[in-house]
């Protein structure tokens, strides 16, 4: 079992990073170390998502550092100030549609930013004789999208060839290759996880599930791309956090681990389930919500199907998905219903403007 003391979480103000920090500070036994959340607070980052934890642990076990992962001087200073021994690298531009409209930020953060972070870790962890410390870890959070698109059968394994098809997935694939290159060339102790679609609290409402929930509550159209039959494998975000935690403790250096929900849904079928759930919980008319479903033009290069074979992480690390889909989706809907203040905070950014532009362009 690896001893983790000072963990640098990049992108901790975003959706999965926030849930991960909540998970390790509040739901794990045996971790008494410190979390440093490094985030530049793009439109997708919200410091308020961790306001309560900042109150409980701030200055002792939790620290927020406002910085760009690509800013070498700032990141080096953070490594030194907090004596970082573990990196969990979530920070990224994460939305496929935005990568189609403006790929540059994806290359800057996901590729160049990851490179800068890797190089900073390598310099900071170099010992006097030049060798790299081996009691440290750089864990890189990646996506199943690096593997491309599946046909009707099969699932991605850790050996599947990379075949990214959007600027987003290409930038994540490039980052994965850099991480492995730093391991093979310089001996940096790394692990990578490639996860399927996450859902849960604190997800920015440009992604399918939270966008659909909020549009239902606001009486807006429910956009479905193409024929609505693209398939995604959905995983509750806390199950992802638990998987990452296991990899940090026991994952083998230089290995990749696929993480998935074994829970495939066609978009349109998922939307119908979500409509029934939101209608029930928010006392809305399900017929009216179904009438709001609007087929819009397809995402260019839209991957048809993702599915993950997660036998490796289950067999090696004993991970499994804990919550059933209905229950976890119910918790997600409950959270959005209970947190209008968080949503209002998000609205001050370009959220609604961008969503509406994206929608208008697809009609
Ligand atoms: P998100 O967009 O919600 O959050 C990204 C966070 O990174 C934000 O807080 C943002 O401010 C921060 N950030 C962006 N650029 C930065 C920079 N240059 N320097 C510092 N901070 C920066 O993303 P998410 O959905 O939480 O995804 C987190 C990670 O997980 C990403 O690497 C993504 O590729 C990966 N992933 C996401 C999913 C999913 O379903 N959401 C699934 C698999 C993998
Ligand atoms: O598979 C992991 C990936 O999942 C992560 O790497 C990405 O960061 C994350 O954003 C997510 O990518 P997707 O493109 O699959 O997620 P998104 O929520 O954008 O879309 C899910 C599906 O729903 C996809 O087939 C497109 C479709 N869609 C999406 C939106 C926003 C719609 O039909 N209508 C919509 O309004």
Physical arrangement of strands within the biggest beta sheet: 3-2-1-4-5-6-10
- H-E order: EHEHEHEHHEHEEHEEHEEHHEHHHH
Shape assignment: globular
CATH architecture verdict of the domain at 6-200 and 235-263 and 302-323: 3-Layer(aba) Sandwich
Secondary structure: helix percent: 40-55%
Mean pLDDT: 95
- The CATH class of the domain at 6-200 and 235-263 and 302-323 turns out to be Alpha Beta
Low-confidence stretches: none
Bound molecules: nicotinamide-adenine-dinucleotide, 2'deoxy-thymidine-5'-diphospho-alpha-D-glucose
Instruction: Give me the Rg, rounded.
Output: 20 Å
CATH T-level topology of the domain at 6-200 and 235-263 and 302-323: Rossmann fold
Distance from first to last alpha carbon: 53 Å
Percentage of residues in strands: 15-25%
């Amino acid at each position: 079992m690896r001893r983790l003391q000072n963990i640098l979480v990049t992108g901790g103000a975003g959706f999965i990073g926030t849930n991960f920090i909540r998970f390790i500070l509040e739901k794990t036994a045996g971790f008494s170390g410190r979390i440093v959340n490094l985030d530049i607070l793009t439109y997708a980052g919200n410091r308020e998502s961790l306001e309560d934890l900042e109150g409980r642990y701030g200055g002792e076990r939790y620290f927020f550092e406002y910085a760009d992962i690509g800013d070498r001087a700032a990141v080096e200073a953070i490594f030194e100030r907090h004596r970082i021994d573990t990196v969990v690298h979530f920070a990224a531009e994460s939305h496929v549609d935005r990568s189609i409209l403006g790929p540059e930020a994806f290359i800057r953060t996901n590729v160049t930013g990851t490179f800068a972070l890797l190089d900073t870790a390598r310099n900071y962890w170099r010992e006097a004789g030049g060798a790299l410390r081996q009691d440290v870890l750089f864990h890189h959070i990646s996506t199943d999208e690096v593997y491309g698109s599946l046909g009707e059968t099969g699932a991605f394994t850790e050996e599947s060839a990379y075949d990214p098809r959007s600027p987003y997935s290409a930038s994540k694939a490039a980052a994965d290759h850099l991480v492995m290159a730093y391991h093979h060339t310089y001996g940096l102790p790394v692990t990578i996880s490639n996860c399927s679609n996450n859902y849960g609290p604190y997800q920015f409402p440009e992604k399918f599930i939270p966008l659909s929930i909020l549009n239902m509550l606001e009486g807006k159209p429910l956009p479905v791309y193409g024929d609505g039959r693209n398939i995604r494998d959905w995983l509750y975000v806390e199950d992802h956090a638990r998987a990452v935690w296991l990899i940090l403790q026991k994952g083998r250096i230089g290995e990749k681990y696929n993480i998935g929900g074994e829970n495939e849904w066609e978009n349109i079928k998922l939307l119908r389930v979500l409509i029934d759930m939101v209608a029930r919980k928010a006392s809305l008319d399900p017929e009216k919500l179904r009438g709001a479903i609007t087929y819009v033009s397809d995402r260019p290069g839209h991957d048809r199907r993702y599915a993950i074979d997660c036998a490796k992480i289950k067999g090696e690390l004993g991970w499994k998905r804990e919550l059933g889909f209905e229950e976890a989706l119910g918790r997600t809907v409950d959270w959005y219903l209970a947190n209008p203040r968080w949503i209002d905070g998000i609205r001050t950014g370009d959220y609604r403007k961008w969503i509406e532009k994206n929608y208008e362009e697809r009609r």
